[in-house]
Amino acid sequence: MQSREALIPYFFSSAHPFARALVAACRYPWELVPRLSEVFVAECLAELPLKRIAYNIWVEDGGEVEDGASIEGRIVVGRGSIVRRHAVVRGDVVLGRGCLLGYFTEVKNALLYDGVQLPHLSYVGDSVLGTGAHLGAGAKISNFRSLPGEIRLDFSDGRPALPGEKFGAVLGDGVEVGCNAVLYPGSILGPRCVVYPLTGFRGTAEAGTIVKGAGSEQRVPRR
Fold it and tell me: 3-class secondary structure for the chain?
């Protein structure tokens, strides 16, 4: 990605049904994660079409949290979204409409736009996923460095550091991540990017890029 001036509209073409005020208050998408708690302020929740079904769960009509799901943090579940049994939610998680958190998937501190699909065996930590983004079975978004140090974003005009020890990734609309791929902390993928299965990715990728190659990364335009 050529410049850090990658504003929110570059990644997300539509508004989030439950986080409009938060998105409007942020310039860059990576600023959204540390402010997710703002969605859960009582005054904000009161303005949304949500029903509180537990002390930490708010659901729009048509949303569902199955018995056996582990909700350890707070969650908003939009219409048509499902949190399946054995899914784990920690921290603050906001699901748009038509999302899926599948079996043995764990999500922590994340904003998911409409239609995000995490069917099974994935981990998503401290991340923002755009409309229709999809993680194949076993794909993971890592949010913590193996070695001590700052998490930095990788742009041609600089490598800004992010506050805090944990940050995962920003995925634009329609990003596809293949089975058992790993996105390392601070990964930024523009809309319609594809990451092949078994690929480890770090850094940034322009919209429409295909990233492939376990061990030796290659990038080609998506046609």
Answer: CCCCCCCHHHHCCCCCCCCHHHHHHCCCHHHCHHHHHHHHCHHHHHCCCCEEEECCEEECCCCEECCCCEECCEEEECCCCEECCCCEEEEEEEECCCCEEEECCEEEEEEECCCCEEEECCEEEEEEECCCCEECCCCEECCECCCCCCCECCECCECCECCCCECCEEECCCCEECCCCEECCCEEECCCCEECCCCEECCEECCCEEEECCCCCEEEECC
